[in-house]
Q: What sequence folds into this?
């Protein structure tokens, strides 16, 4: 029997928001009593007031996390016991899926069907996967002489500060929470002030699943207040940060000014999408480029915003892109059919429009889009935008836009494609399209990026590490490699007496 479709607007009208922080297992107001408005990008209305966390609130959250770690209420549990809690946490995320999806859509603007199918499911899958991994990862014994036994073990660091962005609030939080909690750490999460609501709800669901009080705390607030206080805190052992390269630099600075805490930065990108004239299906390559860039309104760090196309097929390729772009026209995020929704706020919309203006002023050719749309809603929507005639020195080809703006750049030779693709401060992802297996391998080895896709883009699995080269950051989210970020490696030497 088919289930009736959800009336998302009716559900949204029934939502009750709680913008208070979660510290030591309790919902609490900011100690100052201050709040900030949480504004929906769908229509510009205020959803609720959110606690404006500052250093005093971070102090309380860190103290709670430290107490939980030191008394071993979580880290002292057997791996199998921690696994059960994280599996229950994942199940509660799925059960609360419609609520979480609505919070995500209302808070940051993405279409509701993707909040449900992508964000909720990926968040639950991430937590469950790390829960399942807990009791399946073994430590080591070094191959020493018979007179010694050298044990190599991984131990939790202690208190992890997690600072996550607004474009995938739940997923980015899960990428930190999964491995950090699985390995026995306590966490203080600072969500973006632009999209804090799902993080606060996740903390409640974790408590309902049996995570001990104090192990997972959420302090909303501004980056220059709560985020800076967390990164400077002397009792935080590591920071897992996802966000801009500009703020990533600050995270390293804060570590140097405080206790030299580990800093793991997952930063921006300007990913290269390279299409050769020997690709078998030009249409599939072009449609993949469009879908990968315009998804989430271009608000993805790995969006393939630099599209390099061999001159022999450039006209054909750009014609397909030009025809595809309008299919991603923004629509009502609660309507259930929109491919892309709103940009997160007016500031981001103005940033994107500023880059579009820069493309015009630098001489690029606008093929389609380029305008604000759906203004009558009061929300923040921009058309999918494609520029041709771009060269690699233009601002739109060099800086991360974080919006639905594509730059198409022509090349003649493989060497030229490699040089231009690598001529970037970033190195998060790249893609190569060619039916020549030798060329595909050469390009994959030559491109300086954390992930290189061949004849596809942005296929995803929790078992595969995610991270970048150069100014796209360090360390890896996802996969078993993420455990490296939240554990200390200890060697224990045991002398064995000869008889």
A:
């Amino acid at each position: 029997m088919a289930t009736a479709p959800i009336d998302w607007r009716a559900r949204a009208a029934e939502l009750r928001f709680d913008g208070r922080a979660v510290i030591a297992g309790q919902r609490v107001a900011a100690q100052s009593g201050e709040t900030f408005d949480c504004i929906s990008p769908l229509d510009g209305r205020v959803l609720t007031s959110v606690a404006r966390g500052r250093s005093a609130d971070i102090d309380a959250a860190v103290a709670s996390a430290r107490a939980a770690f030191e008394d071993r209420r979580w880290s002292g549990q057997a791996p199998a016991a921690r696994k059960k809690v994280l599996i229950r946490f994942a199940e509660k995320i799925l059960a609360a899926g419609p609520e979480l999806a609505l919070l995500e859509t209302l808070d940051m603007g993405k279409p509701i069907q993707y909040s449900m199918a992508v964000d909720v499911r990926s968040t639950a899958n991430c937590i469950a996967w790390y829960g399942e991994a807990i009791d399946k990862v073994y430590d080591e014994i070094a191959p020493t002489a018979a007179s010694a036994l050298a044990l190599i073990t991984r131990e939790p660091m202690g208190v992890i500060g997690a600072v996550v962005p607004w474009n995938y609030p739940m997923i980015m939080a899960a990428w930190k929470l999964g491995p950090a909690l699985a390995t026995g750490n306590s966490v203080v999460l600072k969500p973006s002030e632009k999209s804090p609501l799902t993080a606060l709800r996740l903390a409640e669901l974790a408590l309902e699943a049996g995570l001990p009080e104090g192990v997972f705390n959420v302090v909303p607030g501004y980056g220059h207040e709560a985020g800076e206080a967390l990164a400077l805190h002397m009792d935080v052992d590591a920071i897992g940060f996802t966000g801009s390269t500009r703020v990533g630099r600050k995270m390293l600075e804060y570590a140097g000014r405080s206790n030299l805490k580990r800093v793991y930065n997952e930063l921006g990108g300007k990913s290269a999408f390279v299409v050769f004239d020997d690709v078998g299906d030009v249409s599939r390559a072009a449609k993949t480029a469009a879908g990968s860039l315009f998804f989430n309104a271009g608000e993805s760090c790995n969006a393939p915003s630099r599209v390099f196309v061999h001159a022999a097929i450039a006209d054909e390729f750009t014609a397909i892109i030009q025809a595809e772009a309008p299919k991603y026209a923004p629509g009502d995020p609660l309507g259930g059919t929109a491919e892309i929704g709103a940009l997160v706020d007016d500031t981001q919309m103005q940033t994107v429009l500023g880059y579009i203006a820069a493309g015009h002023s630098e001489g690029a050719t606008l093929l389609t889009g380029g305008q604000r749309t759906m203004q009558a809603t009061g929300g923040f929507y921009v058309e999918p935008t494609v520029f041709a005639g771009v060269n690699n020195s233009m601002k739109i080809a060099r800086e991360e836009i974080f919006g639905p703006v594509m730059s198409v750049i022509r090349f003649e030779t493989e060497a030229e494609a490699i040089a231009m693709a690598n001529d970037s401060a970033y190195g998060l992802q790249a893609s190569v399209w060619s039916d020549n297996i030798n060329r595909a391998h050469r390009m994959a080895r030559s491109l300086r990026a954390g992930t290189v896709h061949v004849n596809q883009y942005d296929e995803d699995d929790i078992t595969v590490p995610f991270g970048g080269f150069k100014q796209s950051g360090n360390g890896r989210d996802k996969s078993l490699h993420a455990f490296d970020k939240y554990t200390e490696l200890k060697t224990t030497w045991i002398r064995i007496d000869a008889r």
